[in-house]
Amino acid sequence: MRTYNWAILGLGNIARKFAQDLALVPQARLHAVASRSLAKAQDFAAEFAVPHAVGSYADLLAVPDIDAVYIATPHSEHYAHALLCLRAGLPVLCEKAFAQNATQAEEMIRVAQEGRVFLMEAFWTRFFPAIAQALRLVQAGHIGEVKHLVADFGFATPYQPEGRLFNPALAGGSLLDIGVYPLFISQLFLGMPSAVGAVSTPAPTGVDLNCALALAYPGGATASLFSTIAAQTDNRCVLYGTKGQLQLLGRFHAPTGVQVQLAGEESPQVFPSPTQGHGYHYEAAHVQECLAQGLTESPLLPLAFSLQLMQQLDAVRQQIGLRYPGE
Predict the structure, then answer these.
(1) What letter does residue 138 receive in the DSSP assignment?
(2) Residues 115, 145 within the same domain
(3) Which pLDDT belongs to residue 324?
(4) Are 80 and 32 a contacting pair, CB within 8 Å?
(5) Is residue 310 part of a domain?
(6) By the 8 A CB rule, do 209 and 203 touch?
């Protein structure tokens, strides 16, 4: 079996977690890292024993034998950095939110498909074993017909106008950073909504501090979703069905199991699913499986799904009046 040489473009906190988890992936090796600062790239490379470190993103294209690039820059930069790699023929795993808006996502997908280069959104939640378990239970009708889904994701962070989370130029706000998770999980279980309602509370910089969504689906289900960067929430997801309810255990975006409470039964059924590391290794292993099969997109997280998610994010931003510079 061949070894896959990974590169990381953008060396923030999430890149460090991904690098740590890559050690858990069979036949994976961190081969190159790229930062706007050569010193930062060299320090990162020294920490993880990486043979190649470059001080610009363009210089990454000159590194030989790269099999896949993980893009971990801010949301506002995903479009440019994905295109940089895709046009060079390098397979891309791009952090969520996939792009700043659906127009950018469409162009990323077009370039990938025309060049027959692999592209996938790095929505790590999709690849946790507990998610697969929950989908099996719901699709088998274990809790009956799903009527409502609730999901929230929130944490409290100090207000820093120039920081990534509050800066409009970096596509800041709760929605694209963490609100995308409740929206993702609702799309995964319920599909595309027929109606979306959204309200938000703006931060002084204009990005959303809180964002609350109410959605309706063609099949008759509804969803209540919430994100905030002003308060710690439970980070829960519960699906309510005609026969009972299903909850993703732990933080729903990185679940450690599934719990099912059927109507009329005293005790819930628990399906534990312990994880290793941070959980990023699941998506990396999946990318390698796709590349080994010669695929240009994932069957579990197809590009059409990511585009639909971006279209929903655009619709929400239109309702709450959130525009980013240049839009």
Answers:
(1) H
(2) no
(3) 95
(4) no
(5) no
(6) yes
